[in-house]
Amino acid sequence: MHEIPKTYRVHGHAIVSTDDRIADEQGHMPKALRVPADWRRFRKALDEAVVVVLGRLGHELHPDASGRRRIVVTRGKTHPAPTADVMFWNPLATPLQDVLASFVPGGGPIAVPGGQGVFDLFLQIGYDEFHLARAHRVTLGEGTSVFSGVDDGVPAERLLAEAGLVPGTPEILDAERDVTVAVWRPRAGR
Question: Structural domains in the chain?
Fold first, then answer.
């Protein structure tokens, strides 16, 4: 149902703990995963994107004062009318290509910062890049995993590999805190 025109590039962005969690038990990003070097890199990617696609909770918890355009993924049948900067999208009701054509025609990078349901959705649709940052000294134990498959015992890296992505060479973001990032890309063009 969902096809992404070749003029768009889908870039996922997540920082995870050693146990592949993006949020604590309350659904909030813990301070231990807030790494300035990762934050700068992430903000730059958002600034370069033509649109940010995120979940409803992320949209509500993190209002965007920068004026970035957002597509908010929702399962609801009713939602607010679109504005110049925000469009709500139910993937069960409308193909992604239709939303992109009406809201951000012309193509460009699409930033996908989550949460889990949105990461899962685009794991099926297809990523052109997935920036997986890892805080190697942080274990959360409980909380929200980056992909739902992690809850079934499958590591995030394996899920990305099963989706046809391969990792690039990891880059050190913060040596003192032992935080790295690897950019995963398709084995062959999408």
Answer: 8-186 (3.40.430.10)
